[in-house]
Write the structure tokens for this entry.
Amino acid sequence: MQAELTEDSTLQVLMARQPIFTKNRDIVAYELLFRDDKGEFVAGLNENETTVSVLLNTYASVVGEKRERTVPVYLKVTDQFLLEHDIPELPRDRFVIEVIGTSHINELLVAAVKNLASQGYRIALADYDPQDSRFDPLLSIVHIVKLDVQKLGFDNLPQIVQSLRYKGVDLLADKVETDAEFRICLELGFELFMGFFLSRPELVRGRKVRGNKLVLLELLEAFDDPSADAKSIEALALKDPELTFKILRVVNSAAFSLKREVSSLSHAIALLGMDQVKRWVMLFLCSNEGDTPLELTRAMLQRGRMEEVLAELLERPDPMNYFFVGLLSQLDALLGIPMPELIEQLPLDTKIKLALTDYAGDEGQLLRDVIYVERGEFERVNADLPPQFLQVAYRHAVDWANQVVKAMA
């Protein structure tokens, strides 16, 4: 971690990515969010801030159940940047140039966008407003139109979608906040979707944790029992032999980089200690359920790891508690159980429960900061850390989560 911090110490741009989904909730692209160290929009990219290799290797990577793949990255650019700078030489099939809605749209800008399209770039138009005629010249050039469904209103969307259908563009629904909103946009004919609907599904009151998740809960309780030892925990885990095998496979994977193979759960505890094995039990509590998209599990892992790394950088005691808080913060979405009901079923310390429900305490406050980074709301982060530390923690968490998902799949 220290080596990585040293390597990226000159990075002055905060970056995060937000997935763009298909109708099947598969990731088809990422939008890159980036700000400078004062929280201002960065007009473009230069060699000192980011490189194409970093973007493609870290921010364009998607880990699926069978393979890892790369997807295009959406890059927001201002009108000033389009008119005053040349777009860096980028692979045409790997980047989508996104023109922001606050641009001053004139003949020069339209010509610049047309030139990029003629070079083979795909162009997206953000913040489209059908009442604003200044967007009209771009509709015959761009390939994707991004609609803020919250701002435009769901009552107005059918007419807007119908009018844009004649332009031959793909429609991207932005700010889709719930599963119900996703289904509305799906029925209206949107091809692409952005927002936090994966973490806000329909929650069912009274639902209980079931299946191998119950075994995992029993294991977590056993880890907190002072009288428990490696053998007693292993005996409990063997109630679900398949689950035990999966935990051992992850522990033996590159995610842990062990020099010798771990042959049993008790062996893993002897080598790594109770806390580290407890971490992996917790990971399987967060593995995807049924038709839940794998992206939700990956997002949970990423959030937990980033919060833990930030806690370490801030020299907070018990950084693993921060890992648990970040990891569990979307467990309600995974299991379809409201958080207040869910935490009553989890063997958690009161401090961790309050962090999850009220963002209380150091763990809860840092969880809020991690969420701000994920959403690109960098100016709202309260943690007393320089931007490059936040950026390195985020990149590390993205890579780590991908690695773990590959081992778990």
